[in-house]
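ERR on first pass: missing label on line 2. Operator R.T. fixed the label and resubmitted. Corrected input:
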Amino acid sequence: MRTHHALLVVCAGLIAGGLHGAAVGGFVSVPVQAAGSQPLISINPKLNLDTPTETQDRANSLGTLSGANILAALPAGNILKSSRSAPIVVNGVTVGTLYDRVWCLGSGSSCDASNTYTLGLRVQLNGNAWNPSGRSFEINDFFRAVRASAAADVAYYRGAANPLPTVAPFPSTQPAPGSDAETASSYKDLEVVGRTIQGLFEPSASLQYADKVTNNSWINFRADANQNDPDVAFPYSYNSEWSPWLLVRQVCAAGYNATPQALKARLWQGGEEAQTPQAILTSAYVCN
Amino acid sequence: MARSSPGAAAQRLKLAAALLLAAAIGVLLTRGWGDRPAAVLPARPAAAAEVTVVAPVPLLAASSAGQAMTAEAAAPAVCALQSLQLALDQAPAFTVCLDNTQLQQNGSVRSYLLRAGDAQGWSLRVDMAERALLGVLLRARDGRAYSCAAPHCAGQVSVTAAPAGGDGQLSLRELRLAAAPRSGAASAGGAGVAALNASLRLPSDEQVPGLACTGPSISISAAHAAAAKFCGQAGAGVEIADNGQRRYRFQDHEGRTLLIAVDGGQRVVGVSWEGHGCRDDGCRGARTSSADPANDLAERSFFFGRTVLPDQAAAAGAGAALRPALVLDGSLVMPAQ
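pass 2 clean. output:
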């Protein structure tokens, strides 16, 4: 049943994106949504959901950016404005590192008058046990605050250090992802996006790709990250201690906050493999 | 003075013990077993007859479920660690003795957790982010719960700390919490309000495993105050300013930021922390280095040797009282981004 729903989401996403045939890379538009319940926008949802061969279509390039590193992958004309790294703390245990960046269209060290900013985050998780279960922390959904009244474009960067091939054969062992946030590879793709602050199994007992309540103040990126993922099954899926770079581009009429703002990013473990649901509200740069 | 013989001293001890025993029996006969001798009680407040406390064991004092007992029937609590004054549903306040404050960090959210060892099992949770209140929850073991959320009660909760951080205090002043539905019960059994007053000690990050500095750090000291340790536990990064300056930020888990401005010549031209700061030549003793200075994302070290940060607000003539200057010593490392 869940697989059937996933296929519906894939089809809905392709139709919504006006795509016919192979999906293409680049930013995907996520418009301001009407109030109410909305379907998530499909990027690269899981296939064979909740089966031993659960996987993603690596040949699906919808929403992807490619390049030797994250800056090279961004459209020409972007310059770096801010970068930070911060521990991800839950129950006083550091379970990983959050990388947060701001780029803008501009030259030298100044943004141009278009006020076009791209905010990006990614994480690298470790294997630390954060609760009595002894399991490593898994993030299923990444949320960041966005300008509610402005359209958003989203994209993601899988990395370049040691990427998976886009077509079979896929490796039969865990690849080494690299250690540099600029280039490290994620092995799970962006599944869906939406303007909501509801993630996997929110509300509880909902299906994986169930419709979500609109919240235009937030963008949700659904992508799994876990250094020791219970559902890993080579060559269908791999541990992904790195998330992709998850990017949202907006016009930030009043620039951005160079000081990260508390509670503006939400990292959500939804309990995909029966883990304890846990949200981490943490700091992030904010588009104004 | 001549020393007494051992036999005479023993006789005096026996006599004193007998007198004490007789006095104690007298007190019990006249006041009953429920009261303790007045000599061991703190001074009672003016409205002693309305004070509601039960202190069969001084360390575990609390009232029963909103059933006030007067001070005539019970002694005020003497708490070993700390306490709060709690009044339920307009009844007189009583003392709840609390354990030490526990600190739990989840992302930006800092929770202060306190428990009483009393029969009612009171527990208090105060959630904050960067020293701003998010919410308060008071619960009893039987499921009664009282809560409030920002901004409704933000003015009644405050955190104070030394200018350089470190141990602090959590103050609850006439904090009113509304009854919440009992957990696991369909009906709200705790209608009414709870009013809290307390001044609670907070641990510093250095006392909390997982939050203490483990790498390079600096000390931030002010005159007449203990130095605080800081290492940017909550993250570090760089901003490329429009004028080409690089502004490096180190944050702690309570949102305090050490900002270091560096010019194109790799010279530290500004340092600021919590309203204190220096500029240009005033930042003596501060320097930076990187093995890859052209790479903004490369690891970078900062060194401070008796770097003095005067009070910026007072220096700007903002009318604020002059606070003692802070002195920075030590080193920090921004990890590769």
